[in-house]
Amino acid sequence: MDRIRIVGGNRLNGVIPISGAKNAALPLMIASLLTDDTLTLENVPHLADVEQLIRILSNHGVDYSVNGRRQRQDSGYSRTIHFTARDIVDTTAPYELVSKMRASFWVIGPLLARMGEARVSLPGGCAIGTRPVDLFIDGLKALGVDIDIEGGYINARAPKGIQAGRYDFPKQSVGATHVLMMAASLANGAVEIHNAAREPEVTDLADCLNAMGACISGAGTSTILIEGVSALSGARHRVLPDRIETGTYAMAVAMAGGDVVLEDTSASLLDAALDTLRSTGTEVTPTNSGIHVRRNGAGLEPVDVTTDPFPGFPTDLQAQFMALMTRANGTSRVTETIFENRFMHVQELARLGADIALSGQTATITGVDTLKGAQVMATDLRASVSLVIAALAAEGETVVNRVYHLDRGFERLEEKLTRCGATVERLSS
Ligand code: UD1
């Protein structure tokens, strides 16, 4: 299993290109199931999760080609991929595939809308809490879908198609909003979704579905209105920049010190996180094509954060920000409100010398003068990158084990950091 070795202490200087967003690419790829025409996605990041979803979609009958070639391309950053679901050959998403990645559960929406049935295994994914699927089930039922659960599978049927209806989310869910939007695109009538997730990835999916001929308005607000159409066509769509990768590298620069331009991204995707970063004393300036991040000399101010759905501070940057606060000049508090068990990085950060006390959903972090390199273990996608950030400022050598978590969500991390002067290398085994 690969490991990553980091020797801390170098400042970061240069340019980091930001990839297409994993969390947008996954639902966009799944949307290809809605049409027998070709959906072309540009700026698809080269990540383990994308490769896994390609395998899952292939199982349903989706043909794909990468930049015109039917093979994996191992060089270059984000790619253009063509997806064609001419015939859906299987409406079952089996346990062996869905358990590896929670987002693959989302195929339930398009399969139901196009084929009138889906049999989908209950999901697995990151170990960050129980992550139930009740909102998906209730939302689909509100659109006339019959659902029963048996032997770890959801059997869903909509023999007369997705019906007009309304669903009020009792709690915001990104994934369930994606699924209802995809299913409702082919509904027999109008669908209203209230208290919808407002994440930029929801807006990106709606933009793509509209380019395919759907009739969706209000994405990015709490109320989404969808006028069902009888069929969708192909389209060409560019995946939006990864706001979590953007925020992660911004925090890496804040941690290591230095002067870096994050290219091909947009500050408007992560205002709350960037404002928080400014409060730490880091200079953050939007540019025409990205964000300029700079921290020289002065220490980091402690800042309290609470995670919230968009436009709040994202849960997917919580671990990275906590890593940053381990070196602040004072005490800060980080409160997690989205997932109930998203603190696995705390004990690993402690191995590097961090001083963090956990109480319920709040971590109290007392900044220390020095972190010291150690062997640490990546436990989930975002937690693993928080260890990399801490290691950049730690004395000596840190080895992050189980980096397959990193490969799920960060394209060429070691290369992007090395080009800016960090000492980071992959140890293959
Ligand atoms: C997506 C992101 C993930 C991010 C999360 C929150 C992708 C691939 N993943 O995950 O990186 O951390 O949004 O921004 O885009 N919930 C229920 N019942 C449900 C569904 C969700 O209770 O049926 C709960 C979850 O357990 C969680 C909260 O709702 O506590 C938010 O989850 P949700 O927005 O659905 O997260 P994902 O879409 O899985």
Description:
Helix content is 30%, strand content 28%. The chain has 429 residues and is of the alpha/beta class. The chain folds into two domains: 3-18 and 241-427, Alpha-beta prism (UDP-n-acetylglucosamine1-carboxyvinyl-transferase, Chain), CATH 3.65.10.10; 22-238, UDP-n-acetylglucosamine1-carboxyvinyl-transferase, Chain (Alpha-beta prism). The strands form seven sheets. A four-stranded mixed sheet has the order 23-25-1-26. Helix 6 (174-185) runs parallel beside helix 7. Residues 70-75 and 125-129 have low confidence and may be disordered. The structure holds uridine-diphosphate-N-acetylglucosamine. Uridine-diphosphate-N-acetylglucosamine is lined by residues 23, 26, 102-103, 129, 131-136, 171, 173-176, 197, 201, 315-316, 338-339. Uridine-diphosphate-N-acetylglucosamine binds next to helix 1, helix 5 and helix 6.
CATH superfamily of the largest domain: Enolpyruvate transferase domain
Number of strands: 26
Strand order of the largest sheet: 23-25-1-26
**Assembly form of the protein:** single chain
Unique bound compounds? uridine-diphosphate-N-acetylglucosamine
Indicate how many domains the architecture comprises: 2
Radius of gyration: 21 Å
Largest sheet: 4 strands, mixed
The first-to-last residue Cα distance is: 6 Å
Kindly identify the CATH topology of the largest domain. Answer: UDP-n-acetylglucosamine1-carboxyvinyl-transferase, Chain
Number of helices: 14
- Overall geometry comes to elongated
The CATH architecture category of the largest domain equals Alpha-beta prism
User: Which bin fits the share of residues in helices?
Assistant: 25-40%
Task: Look at the structure and give the mean pLDDT.
Answer: 94
Secondary structure category: alpha/beta
Low-pLDDT windows of residues: 70-75, 125-129
Strand percent estimate = 25-35%
CATH class of the largest domain, named Alpha Beta
